[in-house]
Design a protein that fits this description.
The protein is α+β, with helices and mostly antiparallel strands. The chain has 7 helices and 4 strands, in the order ααβααβαβαβα. The radius of gyration is 17 Å and the shape is globular.
Length: 191
C-alpha cells in the first residue's frame, strides 16, 4: 500500500508543499528523460544571486554503471533503499561567480532554492525525491571528477512511490511515521 504523508499545517499552504515528503520506498517504474528534464527546467527558474544560476546537476538512471557509482558513495544507512530509486541526482554548487571568478557566498543558498523548485515540481508530477547529505563527499567528488570549484551538496534519490512494506526496518517504520515540523513560533521572531 502506498502511503502518502500529507502535512498537517496550522496555516493554509499549497497542496504541493503539504504533499512533499522524502520517501524511501521506490517502485520499479523507470523515469523518462523528459520527466527528469522537466525537473531540471523547474530548478532553472529558481532565484539566484546576480542571476548566476550556480547550480549543476549530475545524474544517472538506475541500471547504469554511473548510478551504481553514485550509490556506492552513499553512506550505509542510505544505500539499502536509495538503490531502488529510478535516478540519483547529485546537486552541485559552483563556488565562484562565472562573471568575475570571485567567491559566490550564496551558491549553496541558490542551489537550495533550485532544489526546492525541483522537489516541488517532482511532487506535482507524482514523482518523489529524497535529498541526502549522507554520502562520502571525497569519494563522490573523485568519482565524478569534480573540480575544486564544484561542491557536491546532496544526492537526491528520485522515483515513483512504492508501498512501505517493500522496505526493511528501520526504514519501514520511518516511512510510516507521521511528519512533524517545529511550530513557527520556534523559528520566527517579530520585532
Amino acid at each position: 500500500m502506498n502511503t502518502i504523508k500529507i502535512a498537517k499545517t496550522t496555516y493554509p499552504v499549497l497542496d504541493v508543499i503539504k504533499n512533499r515528503w522524502s520517501a524511501r520506498a521506490f517502485s520499479n517504474k523507470t523515469i523518462t528523460d523528459e520527466e527528469l528534464n522537466t525537473l531540471f527546467e523547474a530548478a532553472s527558474w529558481a532565484a539566484s544571486a546576480n542571476n548566476e544560476q550556480s547550480w549543476q546537476y549530475i545524474y544517472a538512471k538506475k541500471g547504469t554503471e554511473a548510478f551504481d557509482n553514485i550509490c556506492n558513495c552513499l553512506l550505509p544507512g542510505n544505500q539499502p533503499w536509495a538503490k531502488n530509486a529510478a535516478a540519483l541526482i547529485v546537486a552541485v554548487a559552483r563556488k565562484t561567480f562565472e562573471a568575475n571568478n570571485t567567491v559566490n557566498a550564496y551558491a549553496g543558498h541558490d542551489l537550495g532554492m533550485a532544489n526546492a523548485h525541483l522537489l516541488l515540481q517532482a511532487r506535482a508530477m507524482n514523482i518523489y525525491c529524497h535529498p541526502m547529505a549522507g554520502f562520502n563527499k571525497i569519494k563522490l567528488t573523485e568519482n565524478l571528477n569534480l573540480s575544486e570549484n564544484q561542491d557536491a551538496f546532496c544526492v537526491i534519490a528520485t522515483g515513483f512511490l512504492a508501498g512501505a512494506e517493500t522496505l526493511e526496518e528501520p526504514f519501514k517504520t520511518r516511512e510510516l511515521t507521521e511528519r512533524k515540523r517545529k511550530n513557527i513560533a520556534e523559528f520566527t521572531f517579530k520585532l
